[in-house]
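Session log. Operator J.P. requested a structure for one protein chain; no other inputs attached. Running the standard single-chain path with token output.
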Amino acid sequence: MKNTKVIIIFLLVLTLTACKSDRVRTADHLSPLIIESHYNKDVNTSRLSKKEKRLFNDFLESQEINNKVVNISEAVGFSEESYESGDNTPGIYKEGDSYYIKYTDLDWETVDDDFKSHIVLNHKGTLIFRSQFPVLYSETKDKLMYRYRYYNKVLYDEYIDYYYKSIGDDSGLIIRYHNNKNGTIKSINLIYQELFFYKNDNVKKEKSVAGKALLYTVVGIIITAVVIVVFIKLTH
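Structure written below.
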């Protein structure tokens, strides 16, 4: 009985230690495929685990034109000086602390070689351009601006950001992985930057999180070693 308890504790420690890096490992596997899906409709997912394939397929489905949703709170900027007396743009809704609108509820007008849509939220107005909210593959496959090279990643408690720079112009892309309460990835969002921007203070944050991850790993190893010693003493 004692041996069984020790083995259970040992397995639990290993599981908890592994979970610390699970979301990063998954995001590392998915990010190159998400970048490739901008110009390749048949991305090879044979090396992904079942869970990773499910996440990737859910992501691709969410990017289809009839499913695509714009996270206004996350990806749209409003000027603090702007004020509009009208109501919110029809179709805007709130979930939790964020505001969203379906892609198909946006009214696009032609402007030069792009399209623009005017939206109003809580009496603040702004223009958004379709080049910053493209439909994956159908609107990205033939444009060099949607070819990216990896720049960096930043780990936060609630999400992970993967930064990419365009090889076609000065724009950028952030792949954001949102976490569940248990620390696993629940959803993926694309934030296209008109001009690539990477905050310097993110480097400090990344080092801080990396330091914590290292600390957790060391503690996990120590605890595992102690469990093994106890197990040996109890079984001999």
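Operator note: The radius of gyration is 22 Å.
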